[in-house]
Design a protein that fits this description.
Order of helices and strands: EEEEEEEEEEE
Radius of gyration: 13 Å
Helix content: under 10%
Number of strands: 11
Largest sheet: 7 strands, mixed
Strand content: over 45%
Number of helices: 0
Distance between the termini: 40 Å
């Protein structure tokens, strides 16, 4: 059993930055990956970044690599997604996933 809560979404202009947080509360070990997804308006969820429990295995979707940075605190139950050089196409609801559990999402809106 786990609970996931995302925060940090906001409305910004193109080129600006945001930092999203993913707080996990679990009754099991935290030694599982945390994955960020994005759901653009009218579209399905797409995987954009993932990090293992030790921070040594990090992966990004092609369209965010070099702009977004995923990280995880040493206690393993909080992950972050730094969004840099934001583009209007980054607009969407950002979700965090831990062991198949989803949060409610946090909305990011990027205007041109």
């Amino acid at each position: 059993q786990a609970q996931v809560e995302e925060s940090g979404g906001d409305s910004v202009r193109a080129g600006e930055s945001l930092r999203l947080s993913c707080a996990v509360s679990a009754s099991t070990s935290y030694t599982y990956p945390i994955t960020w997804y994005r759901q653009p308006p009218g579209k399905g969820r797409e995987l954009i970044a993932s990090i293992d429990s030790f921070g040594g295995d990090i992966n990004y979707a092609d369209d965010v690599r070099g702009r977004f940075i995923i990280s995880r605190e040493s206690d393993k139950n909080t992950a972050y997604l730094q969004l840099n050089s934001l583009k209007p196409e980054d607009t969407g609801i950002y979700y965090c996933n831990f062991m198949g559990y989803w949060g409610q999402g946090t909305r990011v809106t990027v205007s041109s």
